[in-house]
Write a structure and sequence with these properties.
0% strand, elongated, mainly alpha
Length: 93
């Protein structure tokens, strides 16, 4: 019986290697899926721990940064307009 299995395995070694490779690939896929699930669960846990207050705080900080940038843009636009006006005054004289 054992000799028959060995003989069959020798005769079909390509098939045996293919099946072993399939098992390894399946195991790797399962490990990858498990790692993804753990990562996703970790993200959900972080969101639940921090809660909505953290998200609102982050959004408020972004809104403040946007307001500061808009103020700088307005200041720069005013400076550019003033420079152009002075340049055109000097050029028209």
């Amino acid at each position: 019986m054992v000799e028959e299995v060995r003989r069959w395995a020798k005769e079909n070694s390509t098939l045996v290697y293919f099946l072993i490779a399939q098992l390894l690939a399946g195991g790797a896929a399962a490990a990858s899926l498990l790692a993804y699930a753990v990562k996703l669960e970790n993200r959900v846990h972080i969101l639940e721990t921090r809660g909505a207050a953290y998200s609102v705080q982050r959004m408020d900080a972004m809104a403040h940064q946007i307001a500061v940038l808009e103020q700088q843009i307005r200041h720069n636009e005013d400076s550019i307009k003033r420079i152009i006006t002075e340049y055109l005054k000097d050029k028209n004289k």
